[in-house]
Structures are given as C-alpha cells and as structure tokens.
Amino acid sequence: MTLADFLTLLLIPLTLHSAATYSWPLSDTSCKVYQFLLAFSLAASTYSLCAVSMARAMIITNPYQPLTMDTVVLMFVLVWALSFFISLPLRIFARKESVATNQSDFTFCLPTIHEHHYQVVLSQFVLYYFVPMLVIAFNYVRLALFLHRSPVMSASSARNTRRASIMVFLAAVTFSVCWLPGYVLELCVYLGLYSHGQAWDMFYFICTVLQYLHPCVNPVLYVLLSKRYRHRRAAWFFTCHRNRVQPQVTSINTDSI
C-alpha cells in the first residue's frame, strides 16, 4: 500500500497542473503511461486495503493459525498482479484529445476513447470502489460477529484488537470519503448531467484534491495508530535526550609574569 501511495504522490504535480489549466502538456504516449500508472496505483492501493482487512479478520478469527510470511508475500504479489491486469485493459485506449470552444482550445489526457467512456467509468466504479467496499464490509461484519460470540479476551488482547480494527476501519472510511465524490462526478459527466460552470468546476477541483489527499492521509493514519511506531518514537526521544552532549566549560588560568 505504501508503494502504491508513493506512486500516486509522484503523479500529483502533473494531475494538479492538468486540472488547474485544463491542458495536457506532454505527448500522447506520455498520456497513456500516465493514465496506466494512475489506474495501477489506485488499484494497488485499493486491493492492498482489501488484503489488509482480510488478513486482519483471518488473524483475529484464527488466533492459533497465524499467517506465515510466505502467505503475506503471496497475498500482496497477487494484489499487484491483479492490479496490473485490471488496469491495463482499462487504459489501453488512453489518448490525448483536443476540444475547441469559442474562447480557447483545451487539451485533455482522457482514459479512453469517447465511445468507451461510459463502460470504463462504470467498470472503474465497480472494480475500484464497489467490490472493494463489499470485501471490506464483509470482513468487518465477519470480525464483528466473531468478537460478539467469542469469550471475553484479556485487556491487552482486546486493546490490540480494537486498535488494529480502528486503523483498518478509518483507512476504509478515508478511502470511501476521498473517492466517492470523484466517481459521482464521472457518472454525472457521462450521463450528461455535467455542464461547465463555477459550481461544477469547483466540485471537479474538490474531487481531484480529495482523490490525491487519500495517499497523503494514509501514511499519517498508520503512523499515528501504530503502537510499534509510538514505542520507537519514545525510545528515539529518550535516546537523544540521554546521549545529548552537555557543553563543557574550560577555564584557563594564566599567571601574570
């Protein structure tokens, strides 16, 4: 998930420039590469979140059968492979397209040709949002039912379980809040409900900011709720304080002759 978020962050300057100026400054080939990387990073981040929720549910519901490192590696290899093979056909027809208006000409980097816009938008909504949210919701319902039926856990186990569950839940909520407006906007565009105007343009800009705010929020979220990080941070501050070198004062006495 970290690698996917980092890849998304690398694309932010180009995306914000395109959103602010309504122009694509690079070539048609660059447009194809950009659209594929954008879709791939989104898919990898989304499916990694699904994998984390599945792993969390498996660990809590089967405490005596912990996940091995090989299983975890296999899960994330499958996540990245699935992200690649889903993103490639959705972006294979990405192209640079110019639109002339009475005032000026605009150049856009579109994810596909106009004839396939609706199919691509609908596929993205289903594959990148609807299905992942169903998977995450299923894992949380499964986890909630298990915790409701399970015997009383120790205070330490309950605290760790609650912290991990809150972390994944907040990550899912953040994903939902940041990406749902963008999908709503795209559906409005391809259903013919969108029209150029100050309100719609502002909504478009807000959707773009929210989508690229998501990979910025994720690292902060995991760091703040990570018990291991908090312990390491406390140890680091303690070590720095203990090893701090105190200034030494040297007095030099000279005998007058």
Lateral strand order in the biggest sheet: 1-2
* Estimated radius of gyration: 25 Å
Helix content: over 70%
* Count of discrete structural domains: 1
Range of strand content? under 5%
**Number of helical regions:** 7
The CATH class assignment is Mainly Alpha
The coarse silhouette is elongated
CATH architecture classification name: Up-down Bundle
Ends apart, CA distance between termini? 75 Å
Order of helices and strands: HHHEEHHHH
Count of individual beta strands? 2
Point out poorly predicted stretches.
243-257
CATH topology: Rhopdopsin 7-helix transmembrane proteins
Largest beta-sheet characterization: 2 strands, antiparallel
What is the typical, i.e. mean, pLDDT? 74
For this structure, the quaternary state is single chain
CATH superfamily: Rhodopsin 7-helix transmembrane proteins
By secondary-structure content and strand pairing, the structural class works out as mainly alpha
Keywords: G-protein coupled receptor, Membrane, Receptor, Signal, Transducer, Transmembrane, Transmembrane helix
Pfam family, one: 7tm_1
Transmembrane segments: 33-55, 67-88, 126-145, 166-183, 203-225
Protein name: G-protein coupled receptors family 1 profile domain-containing protein
